[in-house]
Write a structure and sequence with these properties.
302 residues; alpha+beta; Chitinase A, domain 3; 4-stranded antiparallel beta sheet; 3-stranded antiparallel beta sheet; 10 helices
């Protein structure tokens, strides 16, 4: 949910398991909770149905249980995938935390979809499985990764719900927002940046300096149109949206080096495809973080 989306963790091979399952609707990891298959008469899907003797849970998210057995199976799949990548897990405790966090996030997304009125019928789920089986050797894949028919059915339902909620979040990001058009002088050495600033203050042309040895002479430091939340360095972004159009900044130090930025224009402007994707991913990350903060989550395993 999306690469800033987030952002937050590396997408390992094990997360591509679900990309295979949901190639038509999602590429996010699976979270499965205890939930018997629903009947046609049910108005909307639920993640957890009460049973007389509930199975052990690894976590409870807003009253809905993540099965302990599913959680352990996901950990095994994660470890196998990491081994296949040539990156065997050395810290199993960290791996378990990564898997748990991911499962909880998927449950939160699925819950959001239900609250938005999205429902997924058994027929919808089975149709997706049948389509995959017609295209891939699904039985071999399921055996390799340890999926039962029931696991696959429940996993598919929840992934469709989670993907639907991600789509709603993504669609809420406008395609045109306030942006600044920027050019910069960038150096790795503070002394060079200070020298450039002295030259600017003495009347030197920003464009000429930007095309000089201070920066890549082929681009002249042109950054294009930039929305809030897009630049890597908050200090640069904060300055860009605070100084007047037509003015340049003082020297801004970041982890990358030293910047002097010129604000060419500031107005509502269509987002580039890359900026739109970054903001969409950020919106999903923000939604999940806010949802997590306002949810009742009990983690029952170490």
């Amino acid at each position: 949910m999306f690469d800033m989306l987030t952002s937050k963790r590396v997408h390992f091979i094990w997360l591509l398991i679900v990309a295979f399952l949901l190639s038509a609707c999602s590429n996010q990891p699976t979270a499965v909770v205890e939930n018997p298959a629903q009947t046609e008469t049910e108005a909307s899907p639920t993640l957890d149905e009460p049973t007389p003797t509930p199975m052990p849970a690894a976590a409870i998210v807003n009253g809905e249980r993540i099965s302990l057995s599913w959680y352990e199976n996901e950990i095994e799949r994660y470890l196998i995938a990491q081994e296949a990548m040539g990156q065997p897990v050395e810290d199993e405790s960290a791996a378990r935390e990564t898997v748990m966090n991911d499962l909880i996030e998927q449950v939160l997304l699925a819950q959001g979809a239900k609250e938005a009125g999205i429902s997924v019928s058994d027929e919808d789920v089975q149709a997706r499985i049948d389509a995959l089986a017609a295209e891939y050797d699904l039985a071999v894949w399921m055996e390799e990764w340890g999926y039962t028919d029931e696991d696959l059915f429940i996993s598919m339902r929840l992934q469709i719900l989670a993907a639907s909620q991600r789509d709603l979040i993504v669609e809420s990001v406008p395609e045109s927002v306030e942006q600044v058009q920027l050019q910069q002088i960038f150096t790795y050495a503070e002394a060079d940046a200070v020298s450039a600033l002295v030259s600017l203050n003495s009347g030197a042309d920003f464009n000429e300096l930007a095309f000089s040895d201070y920066y890549d002479s082929t681009t002249g430091g042109y950054l294009g149109w930039v929305p809030r939340g897009y630049l890597l360095y908050p200090a640069v972004e904060e300055t860009a949206f605070s100084i007047p159009v037509g003015s340049y900044s003082d020297v801004i130090e970041t982890e990358a080096g030293y910047h002097i930025i010129l604000v060419i224009a500031r107005e509502e402007h269509p987002l580039s495809s890359d900026a739109l994707l970054v903001l969409q991913r950020a919106a999903v990350v923000e939604w999940v973080a806010e949802r997590w903060e306002n949810s009742v989550i009990e983690i029952l395993v170490e």
